[in-house]
Amino acid sequence: MEFERDTIISYETAAEVTLCQEETLESIVPDACPDILRIVDVCGQAVLSGKQSREGTAQVTGMVRACILYQPEGGGGLRRMEVSLPFTCQAEAPGLTERGTVLASPRLRCAEARVLNPRKVLLRVDLAVDITACQPVERPVCSSVADCGTENLCQRQYQGEDYLLCAVQEKPFTFSEQVRVQSGSGETPVLLAARVQPVCTESKLIGSKLIFKGVVDLYLLLQEAGGGLSASHESMPFSQIIEAAGTVEEGDCQVEVEVAAFRCEQDSADERELNIELELLAQAQIRCHRPVTLLQDLYSTSHLMEVERENQPLCRLIEQSVRPQAVRELLETGEMVRSVVDARLALGQVRQSQEGKELVLNVESWITVLYLDENELVQSVRRSIPVVCRLDCPEGAKSSCRCACPGEIFAAPAAGGVEVRFTVEFCCLTTETAAVPAVTSAQLGEARNAGEGERPSVVLRMPSLGEELWDIAKAHGTTTEQILQANELEEDILPAGRMLLIPSSR
């Protein structure tokens, strides 16, 4: 039997996890640097070096560039010591092959260093790596019978739509900028630490092209000639285009931009100018609504049939939203805080738990504040603060969530420590998958009245509870139209408690 067939082309998510791991490294203080008296702070940047999809696994490699700020023996201002620490992580991804695509987003939750001796330190970093493994798939489906008039066939079709991950694209690109350092004194300040955070702020499909824009936020920690510290923030815009063939302009775009390499150096001709060079990787997921026609059932009014079916999973978008959660906390220091120098925030793993019809999202936010104590010594305080978000989520639905911290982090001296205020955004995508039975193959058998003589021209019967008109017509080898006509009905809704005349199909 010939069928009209269609092919649903999309990506399936083989894995969507956040891996958290620790890495440690012993490091020797360079000869050009003085001995360490005490470590004040450790900041850094996690960069993405590579990704690989294998049979059943997704692998991600990267590098943590840590900057250890310390007070040297003999006094003077803060000194910096750079340490690079490689990392590798691997996630199980059933169904993933070498044709798949791995999306990854590493971030440094926190880092700390311990002095082993004045010339040696032990560095420990706490990483979180978001991994999404996407596998291209093709699902052939039957939409109708090629010639419905042959052999008196009746077919029942399902008209609906599928919310698909229709494209996964990547684009590496370079970014360079020159930033001028502002200083209150006449002398050029020393660059102690720098970190960057690229953020996509807008994305849009135009034809087969995905246009996205964003900013690279640059955070600097500077030391003035007199030893004073200051923090600086610059936003540098960017825009790019990704080829996204096979998508529709109404698609929903999600673009994440990751750092693959980062260099920030003072210009040799003018030390107040900083040369910024970045290698960035844009990772895009595009989802769209696709109309779907499935052949749900099939029978013949003249012959028996053997029909094989299987369930086709169809996804439905329930909600796509951004939910901001404001946080206000006091970081206790146990001493008086004279002034705040800098504050930074990192987000950990998003955990989910179902409470009735609500989905509870919980993420750990790691806040670090650099401050001056009452003796004008530089100190740091770090704390993990849980942030909770609740959203309605039907049982059986699936929610994918990523968190971000837009805007500035407010930090100011307060009684007993430092008061911090910031906002965490929960970007949620909630979907629900339903299994729709669909015909995969069919074969005609013997005639309905073979060996039974003539069938009665009409049957009188009471519909069973929950029985549909299609089921009755199929069981008696007639059509729904003939039953409606014989009982003078205009709709497929069967009247309760009424006997039906079921004519035989001729």
Structure description:
This protein is an all-beta fold. It has 2 domains: 3-137 and 164-288 and 317-433, no CATH class; 456-506, LysM domain (Membrane-bound Lytic Murein Transglycosylase D, Chain A, Roll). It is 3% helix and 73% strand. It is elongated and about 110 Å long. The mean pLDDT is 91.
Summed up, what is this model?
Helix content is 3%, strand content 73%.
Summarize the SSE layout with pairings:
Layout: E1 3-28, E2 36-54, E3 57-72, E4 79-92, E5 101-117, E6 120-145, E7 153-180, E8 190-206, E9 209-223, E10 229-243, E11 252-266, E12 273-300, E13 303-332, E14 337-355, E15 358-373, E16 378-392, E17 398-404, E18 410-414, E19 417-447, E20 458-461, H1 469-476, H2 480-486, E21 500-503
Residues in β-strands, percent: over 45%
Largest β-sheet summary: 4 strands, antiparallel
Radius of gyration: 32 Å
> What structural class should be given to the helix and strand makeup?
mainly beta
Number of helices: 2
How would you sum up the global shape? elongated
Q: What is the count of β-strands?
A: 21
Helix content: under 10%
| Overall pLDDT level | 91
Low-confidence stretches: none
Distance between the termini: 22 Å
The domain count comes to: 2
What string gives the helices and strands in order? EEEEEEEEEEEEEEEEEEEEHHE
